[in-house]
Amino acid sequence: MRPLLEGSFHTMLFRNNAIARVTTARFIARLGGEAAFFIGVWGMAAYTFRATPGQIAALMAVLAVSSMVGASVAGTLVDRFGPTRVLVGSQFFYVPVVLAITRVGSMDALIGMSVLLGLSTAPIMTATSSFAPYLANEPGQIESVNALLEGAGALSFVLGPALGAVVAKVLSIDAVFYVDALLTTTGALLVMSVKTPPPLGGVRRSPFREVVEGIRVSYGMRAVRYYVLMGTLMWFSFGAFGALEPLFYRDVVKTGVETIGYMNSLFGLGIAFGAWVLTRLPGRFTRARSLALGVALMGLCSALYVGTPRLVVIALGALVWGAVIGAVEPMLRTLMQLDTPEEYLGRVMGTAQVHRSAGELVPLALAPGLAAAFGVQPVMIAGSVIATVVALATLGHAASIDRAGHVARGPVRLDEALATDDPISPLS
Fold it and tell me: Which of 165, 194, 239, 346 could form a disulfide bond with 258, CB atoms 3.0-4.6 angstroms apart?
């Protein structure tokens, strides 16, 4: 059985002010973010500007490169100032960026705005992924806190694309960005009072040296290196989808922008279910071999998602694929946190975020040309199969990492992450 007792999620949410605030803020902010990306950015590109595969690939590539820059800087900032300050500061930088997107008048301008979009969103993701060790009472609870945060994000993934689809249908695509700005501001205000001081210890060096140290730790520790590279493989399979999914719905399935929102809501429902399933599994399930098998299964499920233009099959694929991701993503994050020295946590999570963006770049560069030669659907399926084959090939290496065990880390004191005013309900 896992270390947390039955009903622990209720306890963490309703009795722990810090976890309640961070969980609620993650849900609210990501609710707007999912709507803005799937309906706002993709919808504007594919349906307003009638973008080609090359233009959408350029958009996603610029977003990936700028995210790499933002994540590398954010990791150092998290270790210097703690995740709360980085998260709130990044969200307040993000709000004017997302509002400015409503003023763009061409695909080229949208691609240009994606530079600022990546620079602002990458630190948000890096800071969010660094919270769990600050909020957990003991190392055994880190996985459950991660699953709780992932569940909140998954719930927003369920509702966000559908919310964006409704707003775009009733009002306009531009209105989706205004809703996102409002929700992001609300999330930032909620989490502002959560205190997460940076870990004590270590020598303060120049920011550049600290970034280099984070990369050195990420590659120098065998287990952490494997987790970072497996995260890269996960997002490699997403790269082709980033360039081609809007066109899959427009040209293969032949539906409107609303379908992207509804199907991604089903995808988010699967993610929420997968995160819940992970909390019910024995703690020994969280290991490198499970990660390798999970990434391989992700590839197979994504192939199912785009294997046919039939909406029923796509919906089933979205649910199953989402469920696997919902379990694998918090598992990956937990493994990295268990095997990373505490003083390097932010930088390692930032390095992982850089690799996530890098994993998307190769298929983004190749997908438009391949889609022109072989078609949108075959290229998306091929990227999924490659991820599955490579993940299965690492099983032996994963087994040796499991035999070595985790790095011992002491508990993070919960009172260092307490909010400063009255508790709130996570449903408010």
Answer: 165
